[in-house]
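User: My instructor asked us to take a sequence, write out its structure as tokens, and then describe one feature of it. I'm not sure where to start. Here is the sequence I was given:
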Amino acid sequence: MSGAAAIRAALGRLREAGRALRARSAESVLAALGAVLEEWREPASPPRRSLAEELPKAAGFSRPVVERGLALALGGWSGAALRALYERELGPLADAAPPRRLASGFDNAALLLAGAIPSASLATLVAPLALRCAALAKPAARDPLTAPLLRASLARADAGLAAALEIAAFDARDDALLDAFLEADCAVATGSDATVSRVAARVAPPRRLVAYGHRVSFAALGPAALAGAALADACARLALDVALWDQLGCLSPVSLLVAGDARAARAAAESLAAALGRIEAELPRGEVSPAAAAGIAHERAEAELRAAARGRAALFGGPSWTVVAEEDARPRPAPLHRFVRVAPVSDAAGVLAALAPYAPHLAALGTAGFAGGAPDLARGAAALGASRVCPLGAMQAPPLAWCHDGQGVLLPLARWTDVELEG
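Assistant: Let's start with the prediction itself. The structure tokens for your sequence are:
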């Protein structure tokens, strides 16, 4: 059977598996998925051991980064959290009153996974199953592990659920294979904006497309975190946010905005540089491609030139990290791999002004030191499109119910029926 024919055959099997899944109660499916999530929370479980051993080879991360990143990300992803998410977005599971609105999943879904962070792929994989929708997953090139490891977990917990998840490893650059894959009733696409656009051109109604494109995150320090122990603590927490996953996730901050003058920004840059130097011993940076290394070297050299020209920048660098103290918050390239720009802004309003150019792609804002002004800052970030505002040190640990890209978790995958009963 050819590649395209095999994909279509899998979608056919999954259409039947989805119908069988919806014949079961939501309670039973969520209970089985909850047991799987509980397994993934355990560092000694089969999936966690496999990821710790094999993901460094596949994705280039160091093993300590994988272990610490998974521990932080999955710590709150429990069965109870999954049930709470379901009831928050779709309504109560057990309700004596006749339902006025019913949510259901599609027969099948195609999941185009991207990136190298297992928790992100895990959330994408679990969501359709929670709606009793079978799924065909194409693993990301840098994370070929999460999808098959989840299927193995499902097999240990519930054979019916395991039958509702299949894996299709193929070259998505092949139009014929991608077109066959996207014949599913619902498609979930994660990746670059170019990837999402390519998928969107192939998914027409009545099929559903749920898209998650390019996103970028930032950090901000307020007046209460600009000096002394408060500054050191904030920068230590920010260093963790930067070091985890080597700054390659959508929740990884690329820049620190300091609500103070140039002197305060320079002090914050020095403190962050010291924190990144310290955390390297605990969480060493992984591999860097030649292209990425060239980009980092270019931006370092450019910063050095500006530093030499009337001190318009200051560079603090180690073998595996870079901090540049900038004179202003204008948009500049973000080479990633633990490269952070630090810029002064006037106040919380200045933070929002600096974020405005990134509004279409804004994911998260990590904050410290804004005290009573934090709620207004959060409202301003939300108005720009941020889907998460959180304390520094927690940026890489979104809750299971995080509204990724402002879309919700289960809601984008649901079909709704309004029920108006006689009498």
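For the description part of your assignment, you could build on this observation: The mean pLDDT is 96. Try explaining in your own words what that tells you about the chain.
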